[in-house]
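Posting here for the record, re: magnesium ion.
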Amino acid sequence: MHPSLATLDEKIVAMDVWHVALPVNSRRDHGIGTVANAIEIVVVKLTSESGSVGYGEASPWAVFTGTAEGNFAALDRYLRPYVVGKKLSDFEVVMALAQKAVVHCTDGKAALEAAWLDLAGRILSKPVWELLGEKCRNEIPLSCSLANPDFDQDIALAERLVDDGVRYVKLKTGFKDHAFDLMRLETLKRDFPSLTVRVDYNQGLSVEQAMKQVPEIDKLEPSFIEQPVAFHEYDAMARLREMTSVPLLADESVFGPEDMRRAIRENICDGVSVKIMKSGGMVRGMQVAEIAAEAGLPGYGGDMFETGLAHLAGVHMIAVAPNISLGCEFYQATYYLEQDLMTAPFPIKNGMVQVPDGPGLGMDMDVELMEKLCVRKSRK
Ligand code: MG
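Prediction output follows.
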């Protein structure tokens, strides 16, 4: 961490927590479940004694990392006693205590960390990436996921993406049938030559199905294939890695640094999707990336169903993580939400996410909109 963080004597005097539901523009099917109508997130705001504020987001998905209700309770009840009254310089101690205060709830821990560093960065007039490390890139290639059960709607989205200069898409597979997956992958590769197409099963296949279907998808040469089987099927992942010629990525199999070490030991992947909502924050996400780098594996900037606030934390992490080199999927703020929670558009130029250099996370919350979409709120 940047040494200036250790000099911050200001105390945190208040912590607000919101559970927010944000309407979305379409249904999305994934191997493990469906999202429709709205996504549910938790926002935390920390206030310091000088009146400065910082925000962070937890973006849980019930079938993947957990629930909004669980993460709301983690922040409001179980993490709050470790936060209010603490000096901003206590960051590392508090995050270590948070790891032990409540199991799982990685999204809530990521939200706490983002709010803390947003607040510290604003007081120090430094971007969060500068607090985390050394910047290695100014922009990140954007990938948009295609997951609409109505493929015609995804074709229309792909056309819009090409017009916008986006060069990567990830096709969500394993939620309907194999023929549907083959047809969509073939169509995208044939009709959209400017797009690099990846495939993500989100654990949608049984081991038996995967052994038959994944090699056929491999023959169509997507640029990688992500997590065909359940997170705990390490043996099957290792076997599939042997059977495929394109890289096999682990997502649900690797949450934090502990999983990454095991994934490397057991040879389950050629790369990893790094997400702050799985690792429990930017610092632990950077650790996942560093362990992967030591084994020569690249990282991909994954995300959950997020607003621009959570995207920003991911952007600051990738800005200082050299081997997260496969781009990022921070598309929801621009292409999926009816309205984002930030006061300005999420920064994407010609298909590249721009790393902000302003203080903290670098963008402001639309607090009025958040209050309007709020399901429940707590403040102490
Ligand atoms: Mg994935």
